[in-house]
């Protein structure tokens, strides 16, 4: 492969409803689309959105990283996908969302040049479909109950519930959701919002009352792996690391400390596909399972994540509902979600049409 050019254009997609977590409130997804054109004329694409609460990157810093050091490093570069991906990883410090977007574009171009779906080039589809969830963001209990009902009506059986902003209210929120959708299974995400002691008490109470909780994500501060291990030992609900795991090295440390049963892999944290696959390899070797998640990101990123998810045996769950939050879904192709199950739709690379600059125009 030889990179002829890297191009960017800006977009904005309004959300159907605000997205609220313990860390932020979002009304529209502004994003940067990246095209990597190979010398052979093939164009791969990726997208990056503001991920400031997690990676510290906003659209301005992402744009600066892509149009500056990343474009400088890649333009005219030749090599295998592994070599180009490694070159990209070295081209800039941090900037994991920016690197992830360009890495997805490189991988899309790789697949298109080979005329094969990316999932095949990543080792083949070990799953034909994988169950996703619908996120219910952190609102008043009655609002969360209504959103849970809507998700269930769309066929989602698994709801991801954002908690952790005010501990006393979390249980009322959960009860409202379960009253609205009694058959739902829950993935809870505290986004680092609890202390170790709070986490043990809260999760213990959920267990005592038999709530249908499949897992609890990032109960305590990202850096407090010892504390998370303490929580894990004290409860029987599986604990998932999210903000604590960015790299394969993080995953190894989490496994060594027994800090989590599960890992949430997001391309915006890993900086690209090879590190995401490396985390899944660590998980497989340590007997952990993985979810592939995403930030509030558009469908090109999500398609890249879906190809990764379906290609690895240690990845058994996805949390890739963010495009369902957008008023538009551009471009078409890539993957579909039916009754809560995500599957790829085929085609070379990501299997998507090229996003046009006039789709999701910037506001
Ligand atoms: Mg999370």
What is the count of structural domains? 2
> Which CATH top level class of the largest domain fits?
Alpha Beta
| Physical arrangement of strands within the biggest beta sheet | 5-6-7-8-9-10-11-12
Tell me the radius of gyration: 20 Å
What percent of residues are in strands?
Answer: 15-25%
Element order: H for helix, E for strand:
EEEHHHHHEEHEHEHEHEHEHHEHEEE
Q: Helical percent range? A: 25-40%
Largest sheet, in brief, is: 8 strands, parallel
Helices and strands: which structural class?
A: alpha/beta
Low-confidence stretches: none
Overall mean pLDDT: 94
Gross morphology: globular
Ligands in the model, by name, code or SMILES, are:
magnesium ion
Number of separate helices: 13
Give the strand tally.
14
CATH superfamily of the largest domain: Enolase-like C-terminal domain
Under CATH, the topology of the largest domain is which?
Answer: TIM Barrel
What would you say this structure looks like, in words?
GO terms for molecular function: metal ion binding; racemase and epimerase activity, acting on amino acids and derivatives. The active site is at residues 162, 266. Mg(2+) binds at residues 189, 217, 242. By secondary structure, the chain is of the alpha/beta class. The protein folds into 2 domains: 3-115, Enolase-like, N-terminal domain (Enolase-like, domain 1); 121-344, Enolase-like C-terminal domain (TIM Barrel, Alpha-Beta Barrel). Helices cover 40% and strands 23% of the residues. It contains 13 helices and 14 strands. The protein has helices spanning 52-55, 59-74, 81-90, 96-114, 118-121, 141-153, 167-180, 196-208, 225-234, 248-257, 267-270, 273-286, 299-311, and strands at 3-20, 25-38, 43-49, 130-131, 134-136, 158-162, 185-189, 213-217, 239-241, 262-265, 289-293, 315-319, 335-338, 341-344. It has an 8-stranded parallel beta sheet. Strands 1-2-3 form a 3-stranded antiparallel beta sheet. It starts with a strand and ends in a 19-residue tail after the last strand. The model has no long low-confidence stretch (mean pLDDT 94). The structure holds magnesium ion. Magnesium ion binds next to loops.
